[in-house]
Amino acid sequence: MASLVSKQCVNFVKGFEGFYSKPYYDCVGVKTLGYGMTGSEIAGIDYVTEEQASQMLENLLNNKYAQPIKDDLDSRGVKLTQNQFDALVSMAYNIGTGGLLGSTLYRNICNGVRDVDTITADFEMWDKGGGKVISGLLRRRKAEAQMFFENGNEIKEDEKDMKNIVCHNGGIADAHSSYFISCFLDCPIIDLSNGQNIDFDRIENVYFVGGGEFPSIKNGKVIKGQTRYDTCIEVLKNIGKLK
């Protein structure tokens, strides 16, 4: 059976959830394991490998979250792009399918609302844990809103003369670090591992994040560290200096 969610969605969720091989309690006291798995999903499990957690996550995203959302959208005759659907699945994984389907965000989307400010604000309504705004949740909501309005990682012809873009060579950690810059600069993210041909000369600032080979261009800046953790630290150290 074909996956309902894209690989980008799976990696996106991985990046924000982080991997834990043993159970821990999150910021609001919920027992969590693997990539953000909780409750009955981890009943009787005290340890998982990254490979096991990845498979569990993909199964959960497809069967517990994506399928009910797809069924509801189909019943309403609502068609979404893959990125739009992925953004909703990521949010449902975080707030629950019931929370998503009963939200103002979902109602507006089903009613055809596509205004960027309105939909982004609807995403950002879900930025609290235990009644308090959680900065990590707000970053995630902003990133999900951006994903919703992305067009399959492609830069449209009429958007090519832009100020900033962020590029990485794939991988969970570098994609996650790239989202920090993207949210700060409010700019697109490009996964170069997709083999997309980009006219960098028509972009004012290009930020390359993480490992791998990047084009040598005068308007490019590489931000990376010796390890994935170091890359994230370098991003956070440099983010206030970006234009």
Automatic annotation (TrEMBL):
Catalysed reaction, written as an equation: Hydrolysis of (1->4)-beta-linkages between N-acetylmuramic acid and N-acetyl-D-glucosamine residues in a peptidoglycan and between N-acetyl-D-glucosamine residues in chitodextrins
Gene Ontology MF terms in the entry: lysozyme activity
EC class: hydrolase
UniProt xrefs under CDD domains: lyz_endolysin_autolysin (cd00737)
Pfam family, any one: Phage_lysozyme
EC number: 3.2.1.17
Top-level taxon in the UniProt lineage: Bacteria
Keywords: Antimicrobial, Bacteriolytic enzyme, Glycosidase, Host cytoplasm, Hydrolase
Gene Ontology process terms (BP): cell wall macromolecule catabolic process; defense response to bacterium; killing of cells of another organism; peptidoglycan catabolic process
UniProt family annotation: Belongs to the glycosyl hydrolase 24 family.
Protein name: Lysozyme
Species lineage: Bacteria, Bacillati, Bacillota, Clostridia, Eubacteriales
